[in-house]
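User: tokens in, sequence out, please.
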């Protein structure tokens, strides 16, 4: 029995040693760099800017806003560590590519474009963005067709991004905050689920609801 216990202990020590060696060999700095490069691969030039969704050629505003919100808060929280790895400027570039698109998708206080392209026809083919032949129709929310969840999430990303750019680009930070305030007011004063206004988006990214404050 003692012999079996000794063998078991040696196996455990060997596994721990191997695991430690593997973890020590992982270059997390390279992982960070490649994670940010993913955003570049998904960049869109239609209704210039923003990101394509999940490897296809559609731009869904709802998940895009959430994604850039998370990227913005991560950049705010870990700015020093990103700077130490010379990745802060890349993170800010990724945020700006998305938020600049969202600003253009918000041409009026109570108008926000929430989708570019058609998910059904797009998912039925496989094309590079530069070769796409699928419809590039745009869909929006407005006073008659509200979407508090979409407007609220877009307000959130622009507000978070304004904090990320506060020191790097105060002018752009102010522009982001202006649009964030307008969209928050739009969401608050014109309640409604965005998939009831942009039905095609709801087939892929429906909202579970919203709260008006």
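Assistant: Sequence out:
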């Amino acid at each position: 029995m003692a012999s079996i216990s000794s063998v078991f202990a040696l196996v455990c020590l060997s596994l721990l040693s191997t695991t430690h060696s593997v973890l020590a060999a992982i270059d997390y700095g390279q992982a960070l760099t490649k994670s940010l490069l993913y955003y570049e691969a998904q960049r869109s030039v239609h209704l210039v800017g923003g990101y394509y969704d999940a490897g296809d050629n559609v731009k869904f505003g709802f998940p895009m806003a959430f994604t850039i919100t998370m990227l913005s808060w991560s950049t705010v929280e870990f700015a020093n560590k990103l700077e130490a790895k010379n990745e802060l400027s890349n993170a800010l570039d990724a945020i700006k590519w998305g938020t600049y698109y969202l600003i253009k998708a918000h041409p009026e206080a109570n108008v926000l474009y929430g989708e570019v392209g058609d998910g059904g026809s797009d998912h039925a083919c496989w094309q590079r963005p530069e070769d796409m032949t699928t419809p590039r129709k745009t869909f929006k929310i407005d006073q008659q067709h509200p979407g508090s969840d979409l407007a609220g999430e877009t307000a959130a990303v622009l507000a978070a991004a304004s904090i990320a750019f506060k020191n790097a680009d105060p002018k752009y930070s102010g522009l982001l905050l202006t649009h964030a305030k307008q969209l928050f007011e739009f969401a608050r004063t014109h309640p409604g689920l965005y998939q009831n206004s942009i039905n095609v988006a709801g087939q892929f990214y429906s909202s579970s609801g919203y709260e008006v404050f």
